Predict the structure of Hopanoid-associated phosphorylase.
Amino acid sequence: MRFIEDFPGTGLSAAKPGIIAALPLEAACFAKVDIGPRSHRVIEGSLLYYGGVGAENAARAARALMDLKVDALVSWGTAGALDPRLGPGDIVLPTEVIDHADGKRYSVNPYWHGVLGNKLHHKRIYSQGAIVSTRAVQSAPRQKAGLHRTTGAMAADMESAAIAAVAGTEGKPFIVIRSISDTAAMHIPQSAIHATDRYGKVSIPGLFAHLMKTPAELRHYPKLIRSLAKTKKSLREITELCGFDLCLGEAL
């Protein structure tokens, strides 16, 4: 298990976090700014980077933020529930990240984690346990149940392990802040997955083309749309409560 660098003794006066969002909706929930793929915006001293989906994009975003001299890295956005107890919009603040590809484990910064947990204590928050990063979307309940059983992780994403690896190499504090977008029992339609590009943008013609072939998938969309609405509300509330530095300044 690898531990990300602790805060004491850093001497940072105005900490500058780098927040990595894979999807446009995740970036929009952090701040209402115009931002394109593989680019960043500065919001009150924090750097928001919209990097795209998956480990490769996440690692590229993390390295770009290192070049911009950020003091810490944040894996921000949505996650799929593996633990059946988690519901839409629940906040996941894991203590550990598991890379499903190679089994490596990374611990988040305990000081920062503690401050965030205290700040968000009145919300529906799960702050004990792991998140696992996979190479593919976990779209079916059977997949999610299997991953939960083999890893013990409470949720899954596709970026956190890659970001943690860069933070560890650079000796920078790291944290994961995610909100549940789909429960362990929910299906993510294959039509949505196939119509979405590596930067999370949906091709409407592509979506309709897939739905023409698999019209039965339409039944999954109402629940997914309602779930995403709760997720977005939850993420916006986090920045309202914690500020754009996501409590990094308080953790120093």
